[in-house]
Amino acid sequence: MFSVVVPGRPCLTDIVPVDGQPNGQATKFAFTIPFNPPFTDIVIFFLPGTVLPPNTGAAIYAQLPDPNTGAPTDFRFVGALANEKQSGIFNIRNPAQNNGNGRSEAEQEDEMLDEGSIASNGVVTLGISIEAAENIAPQLSALEAERAQNTSNSTALVTQSGSGSPQNPISTKVLAQRIIGSAFNFLASFAESDPSNKGHDVVPLKSFRDWWTKFERRIEMDPAFLERADPNAN
């Protein structure tokens, strides 16, 4: 009836019925998917010829391994399919964890992938349950509300973190002055008086090369150091 695709893996069709009805028609199915390498999204779709009974839908539930032990956690509703929507992409992460600690969604996803390596032998169990549409609708509404709340929280965090007074952009003139100042401060310690040149100070060319090498290394390690007030380039 259903097939599952994990990005980068072969299409899965080895669905397992997990219940039986008096008429012999199963209403609950499961896929067991290795969580190595970890993933966050799945695609589920009807196989050709699949038609659900009237006024029903296919509720999708995901059971992830515990990131520390690999033991299965509780099943969580992640979405639904219906005759009117026969395929979809589902995020198996818990929306309540997204942006819950001030980190971006990308950082949260990276963390999940890192934690997944801890439980490399764990599995994701995907449950598909044929249920009455009136039972699925409240779950969809709650899921959408949860996602909207987390999106709102994420936006608030971004706004709050960016509420400080913005720094004035550094002009080209100021940047040039800071580069020249960095060179002068470094080279001054190598200056020597040249009697043949009316006592004027001279600096060995090697000293300039040394400054340039050090300056380039500083730029690579800290590209924004010139934009900060009174940068210490020595």
Give the gist of this structure.
This protein has 234 residues and is of the alpha+beta class.
| Total beta strands | 10
Q: How big a fraction of the residues is strand? A: 15-25%
- pLDDT averaged residue by residue: 77
Count of individual helical segments: 4
Shape: rod-shaped
Strand order of the largest sheet: 2-3-8-5-6
Low-confidence stretches: 97-109, 112-119
Would you mind describing this structure in some detail?
This protein has 234 residues and is α+β, with helices and mostly antiparallel strands. It folds into two domains: 2-161, no CATH class; 172-227, no CATH class. Helices cover 33% and strands 23% of the residues. It has helices at 105-118, 133-161, 172-188, 205-221; strands spanning 2-5, 16-17, 28-34, 41-46, 56-63, 76-81, 87-91, 123-132, 192-194, 200-202. The strands form three sheets. The chain has a five-stranded antiparallel β-sheet. Helix 3 (172-188) crosses helix 4. It is rod-shaped, with a radius of gyration of 31 Å. The model is unreliable at 97-109 and 112-119 (pLDDT under 50).
